[in-house]
Model the fold of this input.
Amino acid sequence: MHDKQDIAGLILLIKKGDQDAFKTFFTLFYGDIYRFLFKYLSNNSDAEDICQETFIKFWQQRQNIDNSSYPRAYLYKIAKNLAFNCSTRKPPSVSYDNDLKIVSLAGKDPQLEYDNKNLAEECRKIINDLPERCRMTFILSRYEGLDYSEIAETMDVSLQTVKNQMSKAINYLKEKLLTKN
Done:
């Protein structure tokens, strides 16, 4: 997590056209935005392209950044919109390289590792089956670590909508995972 005061200071400098501040901002958030895009698009090349495009748009729209809002959420909003435009041209598919970190706590037990790998694959399939808004909300919350208010701002929805979408996603995951066993 980045210090909000440091980020606010960077944003003020970026709004004034300070390219060094923008480079620092880019360095701080590139990895987060790329990871989100890769998880959402499941394509390294598209994720890289859209990540670059996200930061270009952020720079071009720097005068529109509201100092009282979350600049990280604004950045995710740009990325989300660009990813959505890209994903409407391609079928959605979630493919997480780090799923085993989330699911697997296995040591050296091959059976446990096999079971966890199968569970991770099953989770990927279930997440792919979620409705678009629900899937986006889930990814932003559980994989990107955004809080509900940041997600609401990113997705241009109310806080209650985010809560409802998360509840829907979690219940769907539970239902599908329980019916598999």
User: Anything to note?
Assistant: The CA atoms of residues 31 and 51 lie 9 Å apart. The chain has a mean pLDDT of 82. Residues 19-41 form the longest helix (23 residues).
